[in-house]
Structures are given as C-alpha cells and as structure tokens.
Write a structure and sequence with these properties.
This protein has helices at about 1-30, 35-105, 165-170, 220-225; strands at about 115-120, 125-135, 145-155, 160-165, 175-180, 185-190, 200-210, 215-220. By secondary structure, the protein is of the alpha+beta class. Strands 3, 4, 5, 7 and 8 form a 5-stranded antiparallel β-sheet that branches. Strand 1 (about 115-120) and strand 2 (about 125-135) form a beta hairpin. It starts with a helix and ends in an 18-residue tail after the last helix.
Length: about 240
C-alpha cells in the first residue's frame, strides 16, 4: 500500500507543478513587461484602420465610375434624340420643298381649289383638333375665299352614322371656318365625337364665295396617321392671304 501513497503524492505534486507553470505563463503573457500582446493588438488595430480607409476609397471610386457611366449614357441618349429630331426636321424640309415645287413651280400641275391634307390629333376621348391645308394654283394671283366645314362618317351601336358640322361642333347653324388665300392656307379647329362612335372617314367641304363647292374625303386612318414631316403649310404658321 505504501507504493500507492507514493504514486498519489507524485500525482498531487505533478498537478501542483502544472498549475504553477500555467499561472506563471499566464502572468508572463498579461504582465506589462510582455510587449508581444500589446504590439500585436496595436498592429491589428492599425491594419484594421488601414483596411477601412482602403474600403472607403474603393467605394468612392466605384461611386465616381458609376456616376460617370450614367452621365455618359445620358449624354449618348440626348445625342441620339437630337439626331432623331434633326432627321425629322430634314424630312420635313424636304417635304416642304416638294410641296412648294408642286404648288408654284413652273412644272407643277395646275389645280383648282382643293384640300391638300387633313390631320386629326386627339385631345381626349371625344375631342379632336384638326388641321386642314387648302391649296390652289390654277388662277395664280387670284384670291380664293369661302368657308370650310367637315363631316365624319362612322358607326355607333353597329349602325352607320354621319355627323354633320353642327353635330361635330355641338351647336345649331354653326358657321363654317373662313378661308381666304392665293396659293395655300392652313385652317385649324376642334370637333367632338360622341362616345361609342367609331369614325372611318372625314369629308371636307369648301363652299367658295363664287358659288362653287368642293368636297374631298380622307380615311380616318390617313387623317390620324402621324406624318414623317410637316406637309407644306404645316411647317409654320404660313398663309398667303390676299
């Protein structure tokens, strides 16, 4: 049994020695004289601060590049829009030149009073603004004058219907729009369609002061189609009134 007591004593001594050694190591690690842990902590904090600065700088660069890319995209879009508008303007000018050549050119076909074009633009579900271009080059220098009225043919509730000038203008005995010109004139006005009415054709009627009457019809699809450019007198507020 004596050897068991010796073994137990040895184990106790070894345990105490281990505890003492561990305590000494911990004291060495945390004591002010041990500069390793403090140096490591300081270096770690410094590295962390440097990394934070690098991240912020990177984020700023990304933001700058993103903004620069957006500015470039906006500038490119504006340039494309400007080029598109310029192409439309050139197309309109070419249409104007062709219009004038046909109207007053030496080789242009001579025609009496006529409706060159009608353009319809929707204002809301029932209101429409129309622009009608009147021309004549048969009697050069002579003034054509009179009144313009419109009628619209279509259907409502499956039945064919024609709206006259009074119905389109929502009144009774509504006078027509006056015109007076030598070569061409642009007449504008508004008309109103009832709800549920589906237009298919618009007819312009010119009642000349000389007594002659001219009627010309246009499909509603043609009248509401956007032109590639201005047609002659639509290029500006032009009228060669006598």
């Amino acid at each position: 049994m004596r050897w068991r007591g010796r073994v137990a004593g040895a184990l106790v001594a070894l345990t105490l020695l281990s505890l003492a050694f561990g305590a000494w190591g911990l004291w060495r690690l945390l004591s002010p004289e041990s500069g390793d842990i403090h140096a490591r902590l300081a270096a770690s904090e410094k590295a962390r601060a440097g990394l934070q600065v690098a991240v912020e700088d990177f984020e700023q660069r990304v933001a700058t590049l993103t903004r620069s890319d957006q500015i470039s995209r906006d500038a490119n879009r504006d340039l494309q829009n400007a080029l598109s508008e310029r192409d439309e303007e050139i197309a309109g000018l070419r249409a104007d030149v062709a219009f004038y050549e046909r109207l007053v050119g030496a080789t242009g076909q001579r025609r009496g009073l006529s409706v060159h074009a009608i353009r319809m633009r929707a204002q809301n579900d029932t209101a429409w603004h129309f622009t009608s271009t009147l021309t004549q080059n048969l009697n050069r220098g002579a003034v054509s004058s009179g009144q313009l009225t419109l009628a619209v043919e279509g259907s409502r509730d499956g039945r064919r219907e024609i709206l006259d000038w009074d119905a389109l203008r929502q009144g009774e005995d509504v006078p027509g729009l006056e015109y007076s010109f030598k070569y061409f004139q642009q007449i504008e006005g508004d008309l109103f369609l009832p709800e549920g009415f589906e237009p298919v054709r618009v007819t312009a009627r010119l009642q000349s002061r000389s007594g002659a009457t001219v009627e010309q019809s246009f499909t509603w699809a043609d009248a509401t189609r956007e032109a590639a450019g201005n047609t002659g007198a639509e290029a500006a507020d032009r009228s060669d009134k006598g």
